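thought: fold this chain, then report.
action: predict
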Amino acid sequence: MKLPALTLILGLATPLAGAQPCAAATVQSGAAVPRVVELYTSEGCSSCPPADRWLGGLKGQPGVIAAAFHVDYWNGLGWPDRFSSPAFTERQRQGIGRNGARYAYTPQLVVNGRDWPAAVLPAPAAEPARVRLTWQRSAAGELRLAAQPLAGAPSRIVLWWARVEDGHVSRVRAGENRGETLRHDSVVRDYAQLPLWDGRERGEWTVPVKPAEPGHASRWLAVATDAATGAVLQAVEIGC
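observation:
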């Protein structure tokens, strides 16, 4: 199935009115690179619920950062996934080849930039970070992301961030999962890729803050990758 192209736009903005109140905080990445798990999934795919449940089981595991990107190319086959976005479909499409996958499919796991066909995480590696990432939230609710190059940092670095929510439940009324009740964690609700960073000097960006769906707290993830290989250089998350 041919996937539509989409230009991703980063919105730089101060927090929206009505955003959920969060305490001021600063969270900095550690010395080692965590395992970053991306799941490409859809409520319209009958093979996806087991993968969704598996991803939910990663909550609270140290050294693991997870994000579920719901793609939109199943939407015309009976059930529109309300969490899906063409931006997530485009992200999956852009990873084909570079991450080792030959085509887009669901459910797809990508672990630290590599297509990962088994629902078993690799053992934690002692790979030293080549970028330091810092989330800083002010008392007024403004959220800023900073990146500092470390030894071995490449000259072309891609940074992306995502706002995720846990504990979502959907009762599917059509399509391959008709009659099923699906549960989702680490659901990506907002996402953007930052402009290419040369990694020579400290960078800092303002990230837009949007309110979470009622009953679901937000977490913000930030990931730095090597633009040439897609390898994860560092990642960090901040909760609310």
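thought: worth noting. The first helix runs from residue 48 to 56.
final: tokens above.
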